[in-house]
Amino acid sequence: MKIAIIGAGLMGHALALVFAIGGHRVRLTDTNAETLARAPGLMETARATLEAAGEAQGLTGAGLRERVTTHGALAETVADAELVIEAIVEKPEPKRALYAELDALMPKDAILASNTSYLDVFPLMPPARLPRAIIMHWYTPPYLVDLVDLVGSEQCPPALVEEVAAMLRAMGKVPLVMRRFLPGYIANRLQSALSLECYRLMDEGYATPQEIDEAIIHGLALRLLLLGQMAKGDFTGLPLSAHALANRMYQPPEPKGHSETLDRLLAEGRTGVMSGHGFYDWEGSPEALFAERDNRLFSLKRALRQTGPMAGLAADTKKG
Question: Do both 222 and 160 map to the same domain?
């Protein structure tokens, strides 16, 4: 499939790599010339990491350069595209303006997709594009995280969404087709709820960042990786879940719109791995740290492939 990706930043260039590994041809563009010029090097660095881990599906550096090309002009990027993916800033007006420009440039039968996390972009799109408009939301880094949220517009036929889902499955991804748009979909909403509690625990002095991570890694994550949350409930026993709800054992924190802990760290310039300091102090270059993270995630993915999730053993995973 001929694919055009608009936006070569954090997600855009990584998506280009993912589709190239999947055997597709990609044209990539960005309004920022510096961002666009940096994209090939970032893709090659990630590809080399994938190759070293045996996950590049035979894609060589030369193959990557052949399958992914960068273009300064939007018209040239989308001229004969079958799938156009928008991965620009998460703000309504820039997206609305881009969709209007794309409407005049991209083929009439092309699929228009957005990587938006929380925005309902369908009202921002030209009405004539809605029958072939979808949200295709990825998680970073998309060459490692297989989940992809798919949502079709109200005018988009389910068969088209399934066609895209089938393409993603053929690439080894795990598309999750939503019944209708919901900000954050499923994974991001669950992550937001967890983050809200983490900030409460830190702001109110109950736990440090390291203690929270130890509780997650050594208490929650191992079981969640194999069971998820709902299958874990089956193994624990649903009566216990019912008792917990009846006893109101947990009261969610009220969203405050900020965190005192996070505010303090940002004021100190502790922005995360890129600055070398965040909740933790990090040693080594950001590139080395990201590569180390990726290699460890590869090890976990290989282990999960060998064992398989327990929920996959259920006779009917669609009930409920």
Answer: no
